[in-house]
Amino acid sequence: MRWLGREIIGFLLLLALAAGGSWYALRSEQVPGRLILTGGQILPMGGDPAEPSPEALLLEEGVITAMGSLAALQEIGAPLYDLGGRVLTPGLIEPHTHPIATALLGAVVDVSGFSHTSRAEVMQSLRTAADKTALTPWLVAYGWDPVAIADLAAPTLAELDEIAPERPLVVITQMLHEVFANSAAMRAAGISLAAPAEGEAHGIIRDAAGQATGAFRELEAVNSILGAMPAANPAVIELLVRRAYTAYAKAGYTAIGITGAVGKHPDPVGLLRHIGATGSPLRAYLYLLPHQGRDLGGSDDFRVLGSKFWMDGSPFTGGAAFAEAYEQSDLTSKRMHLPHGHLGPVNHAPADFNAKVAELQAAGHQIAVHGQGERAIDQILDAFEAAGPNPGLPHRLEHNALITPEQIVRAGALGVSLGFFVDHIHYYGDALPDIVGARADRYMPVAEALRAGVVTTLHGDHPASPIEALRTLRTAVERRSVSGQTVTAPDQALTRYEALLAMTRLAAQQLGQDDLIGSIEVGKRADFTLFNGNPLTSDWSELSVAATWKQGQPTHIGVTSWLRIGPAWAAAKSLLF
Questions:
Q1: Quick one: CA torsion of 193, 197, 201, 204, rounded to 10 degrees?
Q2: How many distinct structural domains can be found in the chain?
Q3: Phi-psi domain of 382 (left: phi exceeds 0; alpha: psi -120 through 50; beta: other)
Q4: Phi/psi at 262 (nearest 5 deg)?
Q5: Do strands 80-82 and 87-90 pair parallel, antiparallel, or not at all (unpaired)?
Q6: Can you tell me the mean pLDDT for 263-285?
Q7: How far, CA to CA in Å, does 250 sit from each of 21, 284, 373, 574?
Q8: Spatial separation of the C-alpha atoms in residues 84 and 564, rounded to whole Å
Q9: For residue 556, what are the domain limits?
Q10: Taking the model in full, what pTM does it have?
Q11: What is the mean pLDDT of residues 39-48?
Q12: How far apart are CA 280 and CA 359, in angstroms?
């Protein structure tokens, strides 16, 4: 297997400089700093579906300074920017994502259920990749998904060793909570193959004789193997992350919440800070991992808000700490290898976690905690309650697969916001009854949370799902699986307005940025998403992102969706097309 040497890295950097991303190209094509947007429908998203739509907006140096009738704003004398009959909303906000991991895993071997339909196809992809160029000397594959691919039994250590006898090989599952490694990778990580060593990470799976099987389950064990991987060249990683930022902008996002700077890099926080300071199509708000320090603050382009923890794991690896055992089915027993009566563990002892929350809260941190099952959510809420009201930004509870009505009420009383990973329903809706049984009828209760008055948001948790904002929006409304055969908990469906609100104003509120972004109001930043079609009424097949703007400047413009500025449009069009 080859890996990227200096000559290939140099070629890639030259190629990037020559071609450029859409963000860098558009930076030299800035629109005037003072202009009027008009000629389309404007949805302010202030929280009232009946609020009137202004005819025009005045932007001055990236800030909305007036809104109202076109006639009134034209008296100011600014140039007109024609929206071309499209629909303008506040910029979409992705409050829970991992851009470094998204960038890196997008550059490894794809074995996902998005592009494979059988185990034979997945194994062939691994064999084909074994001798191909990689970012590092290790062969890394991402997207192993036994829930999405019906016959995807776990790879054996013998299979992985046959594919890569000498090179370290790791296969990462789609939800990133389980990894399979060959013998070379385990030796490189200092993990004993024959018997467990003293102090070995919890979650390294061994057979009855103590032999390592190559499976690593949940955070501690996964980190023990992935932590040994060499990092790619930092310049290449930066290039890949910038490309990922462009993908977010293309999807309609203007701001992201980075809930953990995860991804192999010598200084991931420094990388994200550097990108924010040197030209980015996104505003980025970061939550630090426990080992990444405690320094808060930043700018409107990049700001550290607090810290991130995982209280349990993924429902699709057996890691979610449900109140009742996983459903007994062929999926859970034969493909997920869960014993009868399995209950996922919690990751922190209550007293220890309570102390961490209290200490970080006293230091001004907003705390975001991954919680899927009821037992995990109870422990998280216990810690927030023990710490008392947070004088800074209210804390966050992430994913909430089986949060109960009582827990929703309790979160609301504590001021805790709730973020829902609704793409579980899209990609795994058909399988949920085999995992949680009748509890699927209350899976991801987004509507209950929103209508209880709790700050409620939607996210894609990339790279666990592809970056596609309109899929997330549609799933919250329809709650339909990718096959179209299953609608999960239809009583928890949002209206289109509610779903869009959760991805704009409420997401800004969760991040503590609602005085700057999240709605179209005088005094707020001119961050917008422009749609072909209306996100509130159009047929889904006719809806797409035409453009995104940050701070009054385009960051992405679709090839067929150029905006038009005054009488110069006709001349520009003749040159461009």
A1: 30
A2: 3
A3: alpha
A4: -95, 145
A5: unpaired
A6: 95
A7: 11, 16, 33, 25
A8: 7
A9: 31-91+523-576
A10: 0.89
A11: 95
A12: 33
269 found inside a domain: no
b vs e for 50-64, b when ≥16 Cβ sit within 10 Å of the residue's Cβ? eeeebbbbbbbeebb
Q: How far is CA 501 from CA 125, 509, 518, in A?
A: 41, 11, 9
Asked if residue 443 is part of any domain, the answer here is yes
- Could you say which DSSP state residue 210 is in? S
- Mean pLDDT over 248-273 rounds to 96
CA distance 544 to 368: 31
Same structural domain for residues 353 and 471?
A: yes
Spatial separation of the C-alpha atoms in residues 494 and 445, rounded to whole Å: 10
Contacts with 135 (C-beta within 8 Å, 6 or more apart), sequence order: 3, 4, 104, 107, 108, 232, 233, 236
Question: Which residues does 231 contact at the CB level (< 8 Å), separation at least 6?
Answer: 136, 237, 264, 265, 266
Mean pLDDT of 259-280: 94
Amino acid at 422: V
Q: Which of 472, 456, 452, 455 is nearest to 464 (CA)?
A: 472
* Region at 138 (left for phi over 0; alpha for psi -120 to 50; beta for the rest): beta
Q: Give the CA distances from residue 75 to residues 28, 70, 78, 143, 441, in Å, rounded to whole numbers and listed in that order.
A: 29, 9, 8, 56, 56
Residue 463: cis peptide before it, omega within 30 degrees of 0 = yes
Residue with tokens 């949940």, as numbered in its chain: 218
